[in-house]
Amino acid sequence: MLRILFSGVDWERKGGEIAVDTVMQLNAAGIRATLYVAGIKDLPQKHRDNPHVKNIGFLNKNIPEQYHQYVQLWQQADILLLPTRAECAGIVYCEAAAYGIPVFTTDTGGIANYVVNGVNGYRLPLTGTGADFANKIKECICKQELPRLSENARRLYKEKLSWPAWSSRFAEIVETYSERENQI
After folding, report:
1. What is the CATH number of the domain that holds 57?
2. What is the pLDDT confidence band of residue 184, given thresholds at 50, 70 and 90?
3. How many CB atoms sit inside 10 A of residue 139's CB?
4. Which domain holds residue 84?
C-alpha cells in the first residue's frame, strides 16, 4: 500500500483535485494507494466516501495531540504529493525532506529551491495532470527509485533545508559582509 500525503489548507491552490485523480489513476493501474489529506477543513463532498481518500482534516500543531498526529502522518508517508497551482516557498517541502519523504509537485514559484528533479523528487510542469503524476510515481516505483529519493531528501535536509544549515549559511554571509565593511 502506497501512502501518499497531501498537506495543505487551500484545496484548489494546492491541486487537491489533481491529487485525487493521481491516486485514482494509480489504483486503476494496479498500484494500491491511499491519499491522506491533512490541512483541509472541508474536503469536497464528492471525495468524502472515496475509499482511496482519507480526510485527516486540519491539524493545529500547537495542540500536542494534533501535532503528534501530524508527525505520525509524516512518519508513515511514502511520498508527498502536492500538485500546487501556485507556491512561493512552502515549508512543507522542508518537512518532507526532514522525514526523508520524496516529493511529487509542480514546477512553479520557488519550489525548485526545495525539490530537485531526480534528487529528492520530481517537479512536473504546471500543466501536469493526475495521469502525468501517476505515471511519474509508477515509473519511480518500477525503477525502485523511492529509496534513493528518500535518502537524498534526508541528506538535502541536513545540508541545506534545516534550521542549523540555514543559520550556518546565514552566519557565513554576515561574516563575509562584515569583513568587506571592515576593509572600507
Report:
1. 3.40.50.2000
2. low
3. 11
4. 2-182
Please tell me whether residue 37 adopts helix, strand or coil conformation.
strand
Handedness of CA 147, 149, 152, 158 (dihedral sign): negative
Number of domains in the chain: 1
Cross-strand partners of 124: 106
Enumerate the β-bridge partners of residue 3: 34
Question: Within its chain, how far is the Cα of 125 from the centroid?
Answer: 16
**Which residue carries 501535532 as its cell?**
67
Rounded to the nearest 10 degrees, what angle do helices 64-76 and 91-98 cross at? 70
Task: Provide the grid cell at 85.
Answer: 497551482
Q: In which band, very low, low, confident or very high, does the pLDDT at 151 lie, cut at 50, 70 and 90?
A: very high
* Whole-number Å distance between alpha carbons of 122 and 131: 15
Q: What is the pTM of this model?
A: 0.90
Of the CA atoms within 13 Å of residue 64, those in its CB half-sphere come to: 0
Residue 37 burial (CB < 10 Å; 0-12/13-18/19+)? Answer: buried
- Residue 116 phi/psi, 5-degree rounding, is -105, 120
